[in-house]
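hey so u asked for the seq, here:
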Amino acid sequence: MGMIFKERTKVDVARRIFLDAIQPIEDTENVPVEECTGRVLASEIIAERNVPHYRRAAMDGYAVRSSDTIGASPTNPVMLHVEDEITEGAGVRVHTGSTVPDEADAVIMIEDTSLIGDMLEVRAQMHPNKHVGCVGEDILEGERVLGEGHLLRPCDVAVIASLGIRSITVYRRPLVAVIPTGEELVPRTDAGIPASGMVLETNGLMVGLYVEKWGANARYCDIVVDKPELIKEAIQSNLDADMIVICGGTSVGQRDHVPAVVGSLGKVLVHGVGLSPGKPTALGIIGKVPVLCLPGYPVAGLVGLFAFGRSALRKVGNIPELPDTILRLPLSSKLTSRIGYVTYSRVIIDNDVVRPFMTSGSGILSSVAKSDGLVIVPENVEGYEEGQEVDVVLIG
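ran it, structure tokens below
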């Protein structure tokens, strides 16, 4: 195993190897539109009706025949009758969204009129279709509204609902089994302070919450102690999942059995990557199930999850890539990194200046919680100087 770490794989190469081994799920389900935000369309949406399906008023005012307003201006108003139907020289009161009578071809805003008894003073000339929403102005029948693979936002769902569609075919959410390992772990449900040398299990919680945030369902598994046969049993019992994430046991110590167990059941694609923190990360595949093996140190595990887990999950679930939220700001002081490693540096943003928070300490999880973002330093760059502008990836 030591030789593997000495021959650590570049991050982009490791990611490509892992993604190439992953097959997206094909299962779909029909879901009510009210529950579709954040889901991925499994088929395109074609409009079967026009929206709007009638001519509608785009303003509060009066429906008129534009020919009856020729020459109207504030200094030369035109007088029209107010009636219940359109006739020559007459207007009909309408409200935003209401039907425009067939005989009218324009709507004059109420601000451009004055009602004098039963006469309407018109102070603006209209042209045909002014302030009128035509049939199909929003969506035309037969129009391709959204394509397969689209990640649905609330505004997308509203558009779909406007077509009278009540349910949508989407890809099934991926199921991710999260397996925490380690002799030192105790369940979070245990009362009191753990004994010396023991810690509450939180890596699995953190991983599960992130995969749920990214569009999957998490299966939180019980803690597995560092015994190969028990790790193997835990993996085998979760091979019905679409992806497995194992927390801990990935380094080269006497109790680090996870990569070897994964290899005995399938194939270890990569073990040891040029990632700081996160070098002991391992990537594997068992049958069709991708297996992400994260270091036990929480920051290293989180960085490994960011570097490999999110993109793997998106491929599994047919979820499109979304850009990170990035701010470009100057550094308050020098930021160091390791040549040969992609370095995830924790930083704080203070008055539009980036302050390195901690460049080491992969076991100090609070350093992430106290940070605003990460500066990802490429493997061929030896840090950045004070005052240099850097891209800060905000931590979601």
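The two ends are 34 Å apart (CA to CA). The first helix runs from residue 2 to 6.
lmk if thats what u needed
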